[in-house]
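tool_log.txt
---
The assistant was asked to compare two proteins side by side. It first ran the structure predictor on the initial sequence, then on the second. Raw inputs and outputs are pasted verbatim so the downstream comparison step can read them without reformatting.
(1)
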Amino acid sequence: MSGKGKIDSIEKEKRIYQISLLLRRKPMSFIVEFMRQNWGLEKAQAYRYIASARKEWQKYYANIKSSGIGYHIAQVRDLKDKAFANEDIRLALDITKEEAKLMGIYPAEKHEITERKVIILGRKKEGEEKDKEEKGNE
């Protein structure tokens, strides 16, 4: 679709989504040129699209913040999709195991404690050390 005339809301959402993906990895000049060549947009229009895409990212990160671990699981799934796309089944299996650990369905790794040490926490007062030294000298 070229920049001639108005576009419908679905096309606009598609464009904003595409720009939001570009924002993650491409410089601003590349994105503006991409929009100019593919959609026939002027610079001012391009920057309005970029502003809309940034607002979408803000919503996305606000949602991530509220969902907690969901963000990390989504990132792991994205990596798994890339592993499948590259036909790296071994990597996909390893990523699946990590995803299961994050979700709490994979058994936790057991760690053996080989040494026990007593740790005393506390802070000596300035006068205590001198008092102990004086008592030891008596």
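(2)
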Amino acid sequence: MHGKNSKIGIIFIFFILFTLTSTVLFAQSRKTLERKIKKQEQALRLTTKLLKETKKKKKESYNKFLLIQNQIRTREELLKNLLKDIELLNNKISENEEIVNSLKNDLETLKEQYAKLITFAWKNRSSYQQLMFILSSENFNQAFMRIRYLQQLTNYRKKEANAIKDILLLLESKVKELNNKKQEKKNILKRIEEERIVLANEKQEQSRTVEKLKQKEKDLLVKLQKQRKAAEILKKKIAKIIADEARKAREAARKKHPKTKPDKTKNFILTPEEKIIAANFAANKGHLPWPTVKGIITGTFGTHEHPLIKGIKINNDGIYISV
């Protein structure tokens, strides 16, 4: 009898140790998984935040890209107008070149005529020669005409000298204007080339920026999907551990307390809360007593959207109350 009791004691101690060990292991596994879930949820929040920031930056960069595209179109219109201006300058340069050439020809003609006048004036430079030219006239009318001729010759010589002077000034002005137009054309062509290079670089840079943001968004989406799967796996593991431990607890309870026939004559004593629930469960919706003295609901029953991650649904078999 003593040996039998000893065996029962050993079995009981073994059962207690097994239960304690199982409870400790369960608690450790649960805490480990809860830490992992917490870490996963933090990672999900961070990834979601980064994804939102990336989308925002992408949108801002895309808007900036559109603004630059509009700027490019405006500058291209500017380039077209500058090219039209170049065409007008070319026409003006050609016109001025023709004027300059014409003035040069006129100047050469005037110089030749003036040279002849100077030669004639040199030959008849003395007053005596002019006087003899007048006195050698056959009559008074011829003498008058010769006097008038000499006066007109003098005036014409002065006029030719002034004309040469005016043409020289005009020629100098047109040559200067021509050179200015050529320099203006050169500056515009240089500006056109610089604008084209700047616009091309800006367009390439913006394209690279948008592509980088697209790739970053894609990478974050892939990472987010992996984190979601990992979180779901951890939740399933916890649910399985809870279910296994609940099953083990039920089995242990059945072994410790074998089933006995219920005493039909014995009534259960219900608490006031249980009486309320037993009376009419459905009618007491919203008036049922709390399972704890105090606490707040942090998770509701059923399937609903994740509060932080858009597109993720959470399925709760009950409610979560934080105390």
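---
observation on (2): The longest strand covers residues 296-299. Confidence is low (pLDDT under 50) at residues 264-268.
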